[in-house]
From TrEMBL:
InterPro entries linked: FAD/NAD-bd_sf, GMC_OxRdtase, GMC_OxRdtase_N, GMC_OxRtase_C
Protein name: Oxidoreductase
Residues reported in the UniProt entry to bind FAD: 86
Segments traversing the membrane: none
Top-level taxon: Bacteria
Length: 522
């Protein structure tokens, strides 16, 4: 690490999921000077981070920025939105469930003005991914999770899926694919897969525990200078000769833009921030996967083996008119995940399991904004959960809770269960299930969309299909904030694919050949 150098070719703000991919790809050219500014510490050698199964202990820890939510009129106002503060970002903190996006998820992006982001272009990037992505290992397949899969399949008449990434599916139950090593339980995070092997590159500088808080213009008016707070509290200005690449995630990327005067002009003026670029879309379109939870006490302790305690799941399509994609998803937990039910007064069983139905393409859309011009003040997040006028999100959760009960009543899963703890068998009507489901709701931790990509002439788009700040040179955004709509599935792999695509857009390297036409292209 060269503290003297403050000018690089590329400055990557955020060494998270997308940032790690970009850092590795751009520094492949030894003549290209790449600097990563990362707010958190290194993950190298830190077992707390590297062991996947420890993920649950990272929630709310020193590695979590821990964002709160605005009062939710129809949802749960107590959700803590975990966002990782460590190299690798949320891929160092999450459960590493790895799904390719559905072709229709990407077709939706193209319809929204994102030329060049269709499935034929994006899905072949799976051959470039460096992460080890495998179905949950045999030794990690807990008997109760296996029986959940069997009960879901027989009870609901859906297939058992051996590999969710083999082909698009409409419904099915099975063990997930995870980015990990089943032999060691070590993560194959973006940091492990992309950064660890290249950390000794002399042209790659990692500035850790360093916080970017303002973008400044250079002499040509481009936003290529970044003010950062160093670990010792001092302040530096770093400069990119080529481009600044914002990879700070769906909350911190728009936050940094707003602090830099890039956002809705009225909002910025109200806070006394000088308007550098009036971009009304910054902070709008806050997307997520909302979920609820049903908890059961089991007849006794469960076998201990697992990859990360939520190894299996279920997808259903309730409405065939909506196309081939599933419209309801469940995670199955072999531990009682009771943060929200406990707050509502439900007992916490010593031994238990739960199911968490979620809304894959939620229709309620939120927004985020700054509370203050002070960079230290956390932004406001209002997800507006369950506010879509048709009541689609609420309906999905009610259906999900009913279906969860059906699965729980089906052998062999039913043989493990002593009683339903939350919400309890008396909660049966739509109205009561909705009330419980929304009050106990949680996030699947997938915020996205707050700097959405769109056509050059779309006034609410923040970046164009080349991921450039619309109408500006020298600044691109590469992270979950650019998603115009939420993919049906857990989004980390979509972020990785988008970052691989971005590396090609930046370097003008050709895209990989369509899948099946060529050996894996690395
Ligand atoms: C608990 C949890 C579980 C999840 N489970 C899954 C899962 O199993 N499967 C899945 O597909 N998705 C999962 N997700 C979601 C997924 O991990 C994220 O959507 C994805 O990793 C986001 O990638 P990103 O590059 O947009 O941001 P991040 O990975 O969050 O990267 C942002 C990085 O920027 C840094 N940063 C932020 N602001 C600044 C600043 N101002 N200065 C310097 N550095 C900064 C942060 O420290 C961080 O390293 C989960 C998320 C969480 C939190």
């Amino acid at each position: 690490m060269d503290d003297e150098t403050t000018t690089y070719d590329y400055l990557i703000i955020g060494g998270g999921t997308a940032g790690s991919v970009l850092a590795a790809r751009l520094s492949e050219d030894p003549a290209c000077r790449v600097c990563v500014v990362e707010g958190g510490p290194s993950d190298v050698g830190d077992e707390r981070i590297l062991k996947l199964r420890n993920w649950i202990n990272l929630l709310g820890s020193e590695f979590d920025y821990g964002y709160t939510t605005e009062e939710q009129a129809r949802g749960n106002s107590h959700i803590l939105h975990s966002r990782a503060r460590v190299l690798g970002g949320c891929s160092s903190h999450n459960t590493l469930i790895s799904f390719l996006p559905f072709p229709q998820d990407l077709e939706e992006w193209v319809r929204g003005g994102c030329d060049g982001w269709g499935p034929e272009t994006i899905l072949p990037y799976r051959s470039r991914l460096r992460n080890t992505i495998v179905p949950v290992g045999a030794a990690d397949r807990n008997a109760v999770a296996q029986d959940f899969v069997t009960a879901a399949s027989t009870g609901l008449g859906v297939p058992v899926v051996e590999d969710f990434n083999a082909r698009p599916f409409t419904d099915g139950a099975g063990f997930f694919s995870l980015a990990y090593d089943p032999a060691t339980n070590n993560r194959s995070s973006a940091s492990v897969a992309y950064l660890h092997p290249v950390m000794d590159r002399p042209n790659l500088t990692l500035r850790l525990e360093t916080w970017a808080y303002r973008l400044l213009r250079d002499a040509e008016g481009r936003f290529t200078r970044v003010q950062v707070r160093n670990p010792d509290g001092s302040v530096s200005t770093l400069e990119a000769e080529a481009e600044v690449l914002l990879c700070a995630g769906a909350i911190d990327t728009p936050r940094l833009l707003l602090l830099s005067g890039i956002g809705p002009a009225d909002q910025l003026r109200d806070l006394g921030i000088e308007v550098g670029a009036d971009m009304p879309g910054v902070g709008e379109n806050l997307l997520d996967h909302p979920e609820s939870v049903m908890v059961w006490e089991t007849r006794g302790p469960l076998p201990p083996n697992s990859a990360m305690d939520s190894d299996a799941g279920l997808f259903l399509r309730r409405d065939a008119a909506g196309g081939p994609r599933p419209d309801l998803m469940f995670h199955f937990y072999q531990v009682p995940f009771t943060t929200n039910t406990e707050r509502l007064g439900y007992p916490v069983p010593e031994h238990g399991v739960c199911m968490t139905p979620n809304v894959p393409r939620a229709r309620s859309v939120g927004r985020m904004w700054l509370r203050s011009a002070d960079p230290a003040v956390k932004p406001a997040l209002d997800f507006r959960y369950f506010t879509d006028p048709e009541g689609y999100d609420e309906r999905t959760i009610v259906d999900g809770l009913r279906i969860a009960r059906e699965v729980a009543a089906t052998a062999p899963l039913s043989d493990w269960l002593l009683r339903e703890v939350a919400p309890g068998p008396d909660v049966r009507s739509d109205a009561d299930l909705s009330e419980y489901g929304r009050r106990a709701a949680h996030t699947v931790y997938h915020p996205a969309g707050t700097c959405r990509m769109g056509a050059e002439d779309d006034p609410l788009a923040v970046v164009d299909p080349q991921l450039r700040l619309r109408g500006h040179d020298g600044l691109r955004i590469v992270d979950a904030s650019v998603f115009p709509t939420m993919p049906t599935i857990n989004p980390m792999v979509t972020v990785l694919l988008a970052a691989e695509r971005a590396a090609d857009l930046i370097t003008a390297r050709p895209a990989p050949a369509p899948l099946g036409t060529e050996a894996a292209d690395r």
